[in-house]
Design a protein that fits this description.
elongated, 164 residues, alpha+beta, 3-stranded mixed beta sheet, 5 helices, 40% helix, two-stranded antiparallel ribbon, Diaminopimelate Epimerase, Chain A, domain 1
Length: 164
């Protein structure tokens, strides 16, 4: 018996086809390192530059009009109008809010305005912005459609109201 801790060591069988970056631990479990890969483009519809442009457009539209613009991109479920209303209700100062909800997979684009925003942004203006967005979406330009739609909505709403 050799000097040491007094523990017997069990031998662990190592498979012949062990992948690179994998080891067999003393318990017999295979531990493997995997290379990190970026999520696919399908998981992220926008590049960082596009997200920056979209954020800038939302900020500008909100600053110029005094209304609170938001964009939702994703599935709207089995009852899209109810889901859009639910999302809009979760927004801060929902009376002043304008929500642009887009579900590419369902081919739905909705603009929902709060009570105060609706006074400055009539349905006709929102419909024109939706038509513009849909035209861009058909060409495969999701971010371009959102940017032009936000510009049109902000233009329709006009400048920030002055209070005396």
């Amino acid at each position: 018996m050799a000097a040491g801790s007094g523990h017997d060591r069990a031998e662990v069988a190592v498979p012949d086809d062990l992948p690179i970056g994998a080891v067999v631990t003393s318990s017999g479990r295979v531990s493997a390192a995997e290379e990190y890969t970026e999520p696919s483009r399908d998981e992220h519809p926008f590049t960082p530059v596009q997200l920056s442009r979209l954020d800038e457009a939302l900020t500008l539209a909100s600053r110029e009009t005094g209304l609170r613009f938001s964009v939702y991109l994703g599935d709207l479920g089995s009852e899209p109008p109810a889901r859009v209303a639910e999302l809009h209700g979760q927004l801060e100062a929902s009376g002043e809010s304008v929500l642009v909800a887009v579900s590419p997979g369902q081919r739905i684009v909705e603009v929902l305005t709060g009570a105060e925003a609706r006074v400055r942004l009539p349905d006709r203006g929102a419909k024109l912005a939706v038509m513009s967005m849909v035209a861009s979406f058909r060409e495969g330009d999701l971010v371009g459609g959102l940017l032009s739609g936000l510009r049109m909505l902000a233009d329709q709403a006009g400048g920030r109201r002055r209070t005396h």
